Here is the input.
Amino acid sequence: MVMAEDLFSDHSSLQAQWIQAPQSDLRLFPQLFSREESDTFFSQLRDGINWQAEKILMYGKPVTVPRLTAWYGEPEAGYCYSNVMHTPLAWTRELLAIKARVEQVSAKAYNSVLLNLYRDGQDSVAWHSDDEAELGRNPTIASVSFGAERTFQMKHRRIPGARLSIPLGHGSCLIMQAETQHHWLHQIPKSKKVRSARINLTFRQIYPVDRQASG
Ligand SMILES: O=C(O)CCC(=O)C(=O)O
Here is the structure.
């Protein structure tokens, strides 16, 4: 079991790469978690998280999303996306240990995490940005990956040809902040080459929103 106090005990690295792109602030830690830590977290999360096959409404019809998901965090960190209200489950010990590392390198606090389990290359997430009202203005999103490497694609909303392909490997952490979510969309496309599973965790700070008042 990897404990919070074991932070930086082995071959993890604080080496960050700045990714240069207009109207964005992107920092990649390719190996924030060591290989051994990443193997342990991957197994603990795969076996211990309460994964759900979530349904969303598309053109009025329920459709199962092509991945498994889960939402954990503080009780007040309820979050509405794709017209679904997500009530968080209580933090687990592993999630708190991962969060502690991510908070250290991003100098931000997070009260919740959305987890995605991509069972193989046929699982994916479509183009979107993390710009829900609950995230406030210019949110910092810290995205940790364990398991199979997948390509995180980004495209600018208005600049034709402004695109990025960022490989997110086992133990990596991508921090997206400042105006990034306002100007860029992201996706994980399907891939015929990927045959094993990947877990992604996006840590977020959720603020209360009065949806009735805001319409
Ligand atoms: O799996 C990923 O790297 C991205 C996940 C994502 O875009 C999201 O949870 O909003």
